[in-house]
Design goal:
single chain, alpha+beta, 730 residues, 20 helices, disordered N terminus
């Protein structure tokens, strides 16, 4: 409803339009095809039809002044700004008499729904021209707006499609002039729109016959699909393109053409490169010095080169009639076949395998095979490519090297010295049994520098492994000699050793590792210790012997009757001391067994009375100091027994017995009993002789023991106790 026409007057009396509308029944307004409402001269709503109420979403009351200017819940301008009812077109019509023709407003219902409406408003006047009210005929134009929006959207999309398409687009008029070009077309050739649009299309084609043929076909209404052409870019380069185009004809006349330009330059270059690559590959394939073969999924050979024919001593025709399993040694056939099956199934992209092959003349050769797959776009196996190299000579060399290495390992294992090797970083790579025995452990993976558990300097301070001689040899790339260290085993025992670390180099002089020999110097250290101890002991013994001799000389001289008596007594005592020295010398001045010492001292003195002498007691070892002192005591007792005691007669006997006892809170104690019987009646001496004083000095002062000498009538007895702090029994 675009206009509001004048209503006819009644026949009886000429009513105004406003009066006519008020006099009509409500059903009359409902018959009008559109929403209609009427306001009085003050703008109060006085009439409306059902369609208006439906669009408002409400039915305003007419009894009284409720709604003014419009029955809608709210009004808005097309831009969404609120439109007060007092400022709406109806308000202008009743107050100013202005009409509104196809004006647009936004109506909001009470439920919040909004829709665009087209309003047509006209003021209603009486016969004198006074405004009595106004009528508004409005309609919902949502569908119309949606259609407009859809058209606008499609135009925008079409424009965007043309301008921003990833494919070059251009429009050429019937006379060949470029009318329009999109961004992709301009970017493809590097021109701006001003440089491209408005010029003849032939100016940009590298091949004049081609563009002539294109325009001719299009002018005849023929469609072009991916027509190959070459275009000149602004930078002078040539672009390979495919042109898809059709023409627009008007009254049978060629008006324009729309062209899609697809850049295939990279594809063309790639295809050219592929052809060149295939040509080079074919040349390489045939000229290669290693064998190359192609095989189907079953292993049957599809293609072989000359090198493989020469390697296997078979003709090309012969090889192409067989599979690669046919020339594989039977011992390697199953493994090669299993790997190839996995490759065909796609479980392996490629695999490498060393196998044996038998030539027609019966020779066995070794081949290193690298097999890879060629698959189609779906991943389906097409064929396998097998690169084959004859490594027979290398295999023989490897076997020789392996045998040589094994001999070297056997040699190193047989060495009595600890030997181990490391790589250039110091990680242990080999060790022999002697190294395990010396270190008391099995080296663990990742051990560095040395096989030992712990290291110490010769002064006992800890020696870190990364500062040991082997580490120095590797870090400074030089042999290290003259060093000594101490290795501690996990059980706490320690081993002194001398290392001999030596760097190892390859043929180019590059450091590849080092070898170290650890020589156990425990025995040498013990020998050095014994030597020092012996020298110290010798010095000590010489001093003690000289002191003893000096004491013997002094004591003997003071109590000798004359010079002959002095010489006899002194010589006897020195000889006894000499025999003790002989015995200790035989035992390298180590502990001496008591029974052997007693026999050495007594038997030369008693001579013919040896059968009347008894020596008995458990095994007991005496240190050199105790042995010397006891020798002097036994010599004095034996000399007295021969001159004055039991052995001075033919019937007297002598017994020397001893046993060992534990001292409370200390070491062991040696108890000796000297007993004479059957000799002359014994009388106690009136004065203490030199012998008694000498024995007391040796036992009590020198050894810290005790001596009890008794002159019983039946025979002399002597009880001696000596602590054995440094001695052991057998």
């Amino acid at each position: 409803m675009s206009n509001v026409e004048e209503f006819p007057a009644t026949a009886s009396r000429k009513l105004s339009e406003f009066e006519v509308l008020l006099s009509l029944a409500p059903s009359v307004l409902d018959a009008i095809p559109g929403a209609v409402y009427v306001c009085d001269h003050e703008g109060w709503l006085v009439r409306y039809n059902s369609e208006a109420a439906e669009l408002w979403g409400r039915a305003p009351a007419l009894d009284g002044k409720h709604d003014r200017f419009c029955g809608s819940y709210r009004l808005f301008l097309p831009d969404g700004a609120p439109l007060p009812h007092g400022d709406c077109p109806m308000a202008a019509a009743v107050s100013l008499g202005t009409s509104a023709h196809n004006a647009e407003v936004i109506i909001e219902r009470p439920d919040g729904f909004r829709f665009p409406a087209l309003v047509n408003i006209r003021a209603l006047r009486d016969h004198q021209g006074n405004i009595q009210g106004a009528i508004n005929c409005f309609q919902d134009i949502s569908a119309h707006k949606a259609a407009e929006e859809e058209v606008r959207r499609k135009i925008v999309e079409l424009e965007d499609f043309f301008e921003n398409s990833a494919v070059g687009l251009h429009i050429v008029s019937g006379d060949g002039i470029i009318r329009r070009a999109n961004k992709a077309e301009l970017a493809l050739l590097g021109y701006s729109a001003d440089e491209y649009v408005g010029r003849h299309i032939a100016e940009f084609h590298a091949d004049a016959p081609v563009i002539g043929d294109i325009l001719q076909r299009l002018s005849c209404g023929e469609k072009l699909d991916r027509y190959p052409a070459r275009l000149r870019a602004k930078d002078g380069s040539v672009k390979h393109v495919l042109i898809t185009s059709n023409s627009r004809l008007q009254d049978g006349k060629f008006v324009s053409t729309r062209c899609f330009t697809t850049d295939v330059t990279e594809l063309y270059e790639a295809e050219s490169a592929r052809r060149e690559s295939e040509e080079r590959l074919a040349a390489t394939y045939n000229a290669a010095t290693i064998g190359i073969a192609e095989a189907d999924a079953s292993g049957r050979l599809l293609r072989v080169n000359d090198a493989l024919c020469k390697m296997l001593k078979r003709s090309r025709e012969e090889l192409l009639s067989m599979s690669f399993f046919d020339y594989t040694h039977e011992s390697d056939r199953d493994e090669d076949g299993a790997l190839y099956e996995r490759q065909v199934r796609g479980e392996l992209d490629s695999y490498s395998f060393r196998k044996r092959s038998t030539t027609p003349d019966g020779q066995t050769i070794y081949l290193d095979v690298h097999s890879s797959s060629v698959r189609d776009q779906t991943g389906h196996f097409r064929y396998g490519v097998r690169v084959i190299q004859d490594v027979t000579a290398a295999k023989q060399m490897e076997d020789q090297i392996r045998a040589s290495e094994q001999r070297m390992r056997d040699l190193l294992e047989a060495l009595p010295a600890a030997v181990y090797t490391t790589d250039a970083e110091g990680r242990i790579t080999f060790y022999n049994k002697a190294a395990v025995e010396m270190s008391g452990r099995l080296p663990q993976p990742g051990d560095m520098w040395c096989v030992t558990w712990r290291l110490y300097n010769t002064d006992g301070t800890p020696l870190p492994h990364d500062q040991c001689p082997m580490a120095i040899a590797l870090k400074e790339d030089r042999p290290v000699g003259g060093a000594e260290a101490i290795a501690e085993r996990p059980d706490g025992s320690r081993v002194p050793f001398t290392p001999y670390p030596t760097p190892l180099h390859d043929a180019d002089g590059k450091l590849v590792g080092a070898i170290n020999m650890l020589v156990d110097i425990t025995e040498r250290k013990q020998a050095e210790s014994r030597q020092k101890l012996l020298i110290d002991e010798l010095n000590h013994r010489v001093k003690n012997t000289l002191v003893t001799v000096q004491s013997l000389a002094g004591q003997t001289a003071r109590h000798a009757d004359n010079l002959d008596d002095f010489l006899h007594r002194f010589e006897t005592r020195v000889l006894a001391l000499s025999r003790a020295h002989d015995l200790l010398t035989k035992r390298h001045w180590k502990d001496t067994p008591l029974d052997g010492l007693a026999g050495e001292v007594l038997m030369p003195l008693v001579e013919g009375a040896a059968s009347r002498v008894t020596i008995a007691g458990p095994s007991a070892d005496l240190d050199p100091r105790t042995a010397l002192s006891l020798t002097v005591v036994l010599n004095e007792l034996a000399t007295n027994a021969i001159k004055h005691g039991a052995l001075s007669s033919n019937t007297g006997t002598l017994s020397l017995n001893w046993h060992l006892a534990d001292e409370t809170g200390s070491g062991r104690e040696l108890l000796l009993d000297w007993q004479e019987q059957g000799g002359p009646m014994v009388e106690a001496p009136t004065r203490r002789g030199v012998g008694s004083r000498l024995m007391e000095r040796c036992i009590e002062r020198d050894l810290g023991g005790a001596i009890d000498l008794a002159y019983e009538p039946a025979g002399v007895s002597c009880r001696i106790s000596i602590p054995l702090r440094g001695s052991t029994d057998g």
